[in-house]
Design a protein that fits this description.
Elements (H helix, E strand, L loop, with lengths): L1 H16 L11 H6 L1 H11 L7 H15 L7 H17 L1 H11 L6 H9 L2
Helix pairs in contact: 5-6
Protein name: Ejaculatory bulb-specific protein 3
Keywords: Signal
Amino acid sequence: MKTLVVLACVLISVYAAEKYNSKYDNFDVETLISNERLLKSYINCFLDKGRCTAEGTDFKKALPEAIETTCGKCTEKQKLNIRKVIKAIQQKYPAQWEELVKKNDPSGKHRANFDKFIQGS
């Protein structure tokens, strides 16, 4: 019985480790996408053209892997938030979106799958 409990704990911790930290699940995306100055500062952070907030630094670190895995480690809430933010960047700042794609997926190998993911909801 103890072995079963230990095994269950290990499986739970492995599964939890396969997802991004949920501390930003309640990040105020609506404020970000409705405030052009704030959105632009996040874009500049992601492009190494401006200073980053603590959140921006964390998002920037996760962005290449999120693109590569089509947000495979994202929670459902993070997927929703990422779709909203990326769509806002694509609509308001298409040139900067292209820069972000080139920076984080220089070969373009993951572009089609990530675009499908973004349009998915």
